[in-house]
Design goal:
single chain, eight-stranded mixed beta sheet, ten-stranded mixed beta sheet, disordered N terminus, about 325 residues, globular, about 35% strand, Rossmann fold, 2 domains, alpha+beta, about 25% helix
Amino acid sequence: MMKEEQHKPASAGTCYGFEVLSSLEFEYLRGGTGDPLRVEETGNGRPLRSEGEVLKTWHAVPGQRAQTRLLKSDRSFVVEIGSDFWFEVDPDALRIELSPTSEQRLREMLLWTTPAAVSVAARGDLALHAAAVEIDGRAVLVSAPSGHGKTTTAAAFFAAGYRMLTDDFSCCRVEEQPVLLPGPALLRVHHDVASRLGLEELGLRDVWRTRAENVKRHMVIPSQARGDGGPIPVAGIVFLREAERGIAFERAATADALRDLWALSFHLPDEAYQKRCFQGLADLVARVPVWNLARELDWKSLSVLIERIANEVRKRCET
C-alpha cells in the first residue's frame, strides 16, 4: 500500500470540475477538488494520429485555431491539433495522455479546448462555446460565434473587477439548480484588447505569445484573482447579437434559445451522447433565463454593456 501511494500522482489543481492528478507542471489550474483526472505525457512516442475512425474535422482558421481532428478507437478518443499535438482521452479511466513537446504552455492551453470538451461531454455535463464571469456569486455565460466579441466582453468584465470563470468554453452541470464548473485561469485576447483594457496593469502576463498580430495573446490570470474551481450557480445565459445602434436586452424564446445553444454545444457524434446533450440543454433553458443582447460593436458601448448585464443579473437574484 505504501509503495502504491508513493507513486500516486499529486493533485495539480482543478479545471472544469476535474482534479488533475499529474507529475507535469501546470500554469492555468485553480484550487479545490473534483473528479480525479490523470494527465500524463506518453513515453513511447507512438503515432496515434494514424489510429481510429475520424469522427469530425474542424478546419484551420488563421489566427484562431489549427486544424483539429477527433478520432475514435476501441476504448478512447484521440484529438489531433495541427501537426504537432495529440491527446488520447480515455473517459472510462478518466485519463488523458499527451504527446511530448517543448512548448508545454501551448500544449496545456490546447488541452483545455477540444480534449477537455470530450472529457466533459463523456462525463455527462454540457460543454458550451461560451465565456463565463461571476456576478455576485453567480455565473453568467456570454455566448456568441467565434469573432463576435464574447472573449472581449468577458475580458472587460475582468477589467471591471469581476471574476473570470472561463474565456472560451463553459462546463455546465444541469441539476435542479444548474451550476458552472470554472475553466482554466486563462484569457486569450487580441493585442488591441489587452492594450485597451490594461490587462498587464491588472497583473495578467503572457505565458505564450507569438509576434503575429493576428494571433491572440495567451495571458494567465494571477492566483489572487482566480478563486477555486468549485461549482457556481448559473444566473443566466447571454447571446451577443449585433445592432446598428444602442443596446437591446430581451428574453429569448425557449425554442430559439435551445436551437442556438445546440449550435454552440460540443456533442460527441454518437446518438446516445447527442440525446443526452439535447436533454441537458432543454433542462438548462427551462431552469435559467436566456437573453438576447444586441449591441454596437464598438469600444465606447462596452462599459455600458457590462453594467447592463450586471444589473439584469442582480434584478433576477433579488426576485
